[in-house]
Amino acid sequence: MDKKEFKKKFKRRLAEKFAMEVTDASSNELYQTLGSLMTSAYSQDWRETWKDYRENNQKQSYYFSIEFLPGKMLKSNLLNMGWLELVEEGLDELGIQLNDLVEIEPDMALGNGGLGRLASCFMDSIASCGLPGNGNGIRYEYGLFKQRFVDNYQVELPDEWLQKGNLWEVRKESKAVDVQIGGNVYLKPDQYGKLSPVYEGGSKLRAVPYDTGMVGYQNKIVNTMRLWSLEIPPEEEDRYRSIEARRSFEDLTSVLYPDDSNEAGRKMRLTQEYFFVSAGVQSILRYFKSLNQPMDEINQYAAIHINDTHPAMCVAEFMRLLVDEEQMSWERAWDLTRKVMSYTNHTIMAEALEKWSIDMMKNVCPRIYQIIEEIDRRFVEELIGVQDFDLIQRTRIIQDGQVHMAHLAIIGSHSTNGVAKLHSDLLKSVVLHDFYLLYPDRFNNKTNGIAMRRWVQLANPAMSKVLDATIGKTWRKNSDDLRLLLNYEEDDQVLNALAEAKYQNKRSLAAYIKSHCGIEVSPEAIFDVQIKRLHAYKRQLLNLLHIIKLYLDLKENPELPIEPRVFIFGAKAAPSYHYAKSIIKVINEVASLINADETIKGKLKLVFLENYNVSLAERIIPAADVSEQISLASKEASGTSNMKLMLNGAVTIATLDGANVEIRDAVGDDNIAIFGLTEGEVYQYYEKRNYHAIDLYERDTTIQKVVNALIDGTIPNITKEGQEIFDSLIKYNDEFFVLRDFEDYCAAQMSVNQAYQDTRRWRQISLRNTANAGRFSSDRTVQQYADDIWQIEPLFAHNDNRGVTQH
Ligand code: Z16
Questions:
Q1: What stretch or stretches form a coiled coil here (predicted)?
Q2: For 197-218, what is the mean pLDDT?
Q3: What contacts 329, CB < 8 A, 6 or more positions away?
Q4: How far is the CA of 658 from the centre of ligand 1 (A)?
Q5: What pLDDT is recorded for position 796?
Q6: Is the CB of 448 under 6 A from ligand 1?
Q7: Mean pLDDT of the chain
Q8: How far is the CA of 620 from the CAs of 105, 463, 483, 641, in angstroms?
Q9: Cβ–Cβ < 8 Å for 169, 227
Q10: Is the beta carbon of 352 within 6 A of some atom in ligand 1?
Q11: Per the domain annotation, does 20 fall within a domain?
């Protein structure tokens, strides 16, 4: 399609849809028109991709995730369709700014943070690598809450993202399945004496899928992200006459639980988990049966991936369908289940590892509980006398009245992976050590990655242009080619051009900050960024204490020779996470204090941006000079904002945690500021129980001064919160070693300050960060999953038949 044709089609579609001309239409109407042109353009490829997979009996992977966090899809679909430039220019000629239409689309925020965003980066990469892979999740009516600050406190508002409809989804009534929730099950012998389950009571819910096309990058592949929504089947209507009964069921898929790396243990959450697991597994089986292949070979057609423990019931549901519905023997079914399933662990934080009480599970999915009991019984039976008794006790699925979901996922699959080298090593040596002894071959690492298309091409067009002009365009398809930049680290023209792109991005972020927070910041200052969920282990508090220190130092000596710095935070706290909300309050109060203080004007600014989400990340990341990755070593499984920020030329201040270790390896010690305890030292402290925060506080006058500022009135309006945080450090012994790492952190900050003063050297460091970020592409990550775990292949025949370039 050329520009002229696009303009003609656009005007025609607008007339058909709204009986309007461009000049009469609202931005929303224009957005709807453009979206509808796009979906009809890729739907043919979507159908053909689907058909080709079927006709080739292609093995497909199914990524089960309770969260997906795509953000906005308009531009990313345009880019992947190969339409971006054409549409941008075509619309411009019609007097329409594409970016005005972009603003109309609400973020699709069916995820909390890293885990959900990773799932969406994977969807982009799986399609872009031409791999046959699908997403499977929940279509929440309300995504992650909207964050507002009132009196500097976080307030949560509902995210009504579906209010104006959703352009990209297709409701597939014909693919609906029923899910049984609750009731009683007993086993009754049939005429041959085989036991089969009989269900009594409970409710039958209808799961209706909404499919969204996952458009591959200029390769004519369109995969499917299938999200399930609950409806009451017509034949069950009678049972839901009362409003309360209706509501309690309709609520089931209505809200995303707003906790990142934390489990609340709520019955509704367990029901959500079973709902999307059962619907997804049933629809995989139904598709497979339509292929008329031997059931014994299902592992050659389907790979089911369990993303964190939330979908771990896939193991039992798959067993249920094979044994109860397909009359397969337990042994054959179990062998197939293990071959089909694989599992990713995303955390070592104890409070995030799911355990469900037996009672609750019996209540929500009684047959699944029975099957888990049988899996557990056979697991113990097989190992007794072979393995150490205590090890069996520690690894079995059911213990002390609780069902351990990670154990189910590991025992019921052929692969367990962590998300960064360090994390995968810790799984083997500490967290899942017992399982590693049992199944050494099942453990592997898949370091996380990010969708380069969204996080450079779309988010940072200024830098992308410089890259094109310097190293050619191949990096857009093959991110390893970013390495070519290293040839230019002594080239002042390139260094200046990259710096100019950064400056442009900082200017537009500064404008956003001015209009959204009313704070004036200079694009000449260092933009220092920490963007991630608010969590004690991520240590936003460490960052804040350093800011307080700088502030106090500047108050004492306004002439202190430091580079002007703007500290930028973006973070949501789980609504029930009291401590995290106190940190937000205190950061906001410190910001009010500092930003209003004339004596330090121009040296120090603190900005906490409201409602951090994917779209805001796309604005912040390209403008960052410094990336804060300061979690306590061993606690952050991987991190992914660390990768996005380095890719966009930010210099990282980091502990040796998660993927920071691999970033250090990629850029070398001279191009990153490493500080703090190592994971080994942290474990030493745990073992010897010899960390005493109060000693540090009493000995170190700087720490004293800074920590006291929380309670001595220096910062207004934080009487309660300041005390609470003070107590967490001093009275409750500083669980995440903030004070232990403080001095080293300040030194790292100082070295960054110094490096920035040498402009040329800083620009070289920045260039090396971008140049070495290629390995963190999620294209690489999903290819490794495809090769090592899922055993799926791209459909080459598909490309040959239909050509690979434009639509
Ligand atoms: C989550 O976002 C993560 C882990 C988890 O168990 C649950 C949720 Cl909702 C995060 C990790 O904290 C982060 O380190 C990692 O980069 C990300 O998952 C993706 O693997």
A1: none
A2: 96
A3: 323
A4: 11
A5: 67
A6: yes
A7: 96
A8: 19, 14, 24, 11
A9: yes
A10: yes
A11: no
Q: Is 640 a catalytic residue?
A: yes
Rounded CA-CA distance 30/49 in Å is 29
Q: How far is CA 14 from CA 44, 234, 290, in A?
A: 21, 37, 40
Total number of domains in the chain = 2
pLDDT given at position 802: 54
User: DSSP 3-state assignment of 780?
Assistant: helix
On whether both 416 and 559 belong to a single domain, the answer is no
Both 439 and 509 in one domain: the answer is no
The rounded Å distance from CA 337 to ligand 1 centre is 26
- What is d(CA 512, CA 514) in angstroms, rounded to the nearest whole number? 5
Rounded CA-CA distance 639/652 in Å is 13
Task: Choose among 778, 790, 780: nearest CA to 133.
Answer: 790
Q: Which two tokens stand for residue 25?
A: 């239409």
| CATH code (residue 678) | 3.40.50.2000
Ligand 1 centre and the CA of 116: distance in Å? 8
Answer whether residue 142 is part of any domain.
Answer: yes
CB of residue 308 inside a 6 A radius of ligand 1: yes
Give the Cα separation of 224 and 213 in Å (integer). Answer: 5
Residue 243 predicted with pLDDT over 90:
no
Q: Is the CB of 778 under 6 A from ligand 1?
A: no
> Can you tell me the ipTM of this complex?
0.98
Q: What is the pLDDT of residues 439-475, one digit of tens each?
A: 999 999 999 999 999 999 999 999 999 999 999 999 9
Cβ 644 under 6 angstroms from ligand 1: no
Q: Which atom of ligand 1 is nearest to the CA of 636?
A: 14
The span from the CA of 617 to the CA of 623, in Å, is 10
| Nearest atom (ligand 1) to Cα of 533 | 2
Distance, CA of 757 to CA of 238 (rounded, Å): 73
- Can you give the residue range of the structural domain that contains 409? 56-72+107-448+784-802
| Mean pLDDT confidence for 464-489 | 98
Same domain, 789 and 732: no
- Does residue 81 lie within any of the structural domains? no
Phi-psi domain of 472 (left: phi exceeds 0; alpha: psi -120 through 50; beta: other)? left
Identify whether residues 791 and 765 lie together within a single domain. Answer: no
Task: Give me the count of residues in the chain.
Answer: 807
Instruction: Decide: helix, strand or coil at residue 570.
Output: strand
HEC string of 428-439? HHHHCHHHHHHC
For 683, counting Cβ atoms within 10 Å of its Cβ (0-12 exposed, 13-18 middle, 19+ buried), the class is middle
Same domain, 137 and 233: yes
Strands 398-399 and 402-404: antiparallel
559 Cβ contact partners less than 8 Å away, ≥ 6 residues apart: none
Ligand 1 atom at shortest distance from the alpha carbon of 659: 16
Q: Is 705 a catalytic residue?
A: no
Q: How far apart are CA 26 and CA 33, in angstroms?
A: 11
Q: Which one is catalytic: 72, 75, 338, 346? A: 346
| 510 plus 437 within the same structural domain | no
Q: How many CB atoms lie within 10 A of CB 698?
A: 12
**261 C-alpha to ligand 1 centroid (Å):** 6
Residue owning tokens 């909390």: 112
DSSP state letters, 299-319: GGTEEEEEESSTTTTHHHHHH
Ligand 1 in reach of 118 Cβ (< 6 A): yes
Closest C-alpha to 475, from 495, 459, 496, 456 = 456
Q: Does the beta carbon of 637 lie inside 6 Å of ligand 1?
A: yes
- Per-residue confidence (pLDDT) for residue 331, from 0 to 100: 98
Ligand 1, closest atom to CA 639? Answer: 16
- Is residue 36 included in any domain, yes or no? no
643-655 pLDDT, tens per residue? 999 999 999 999 9
My answer on whether 130 and 222 are in the same domain is yes
Displacement of CA 126 from its chain's centroid (Å): 16
Q: Are residues 789 and 750 in the same domain?
A: no
Furthest C-alpha separation in the chain: 91
Short-list 617, 729, 621, 586, CA closest to 154: 586
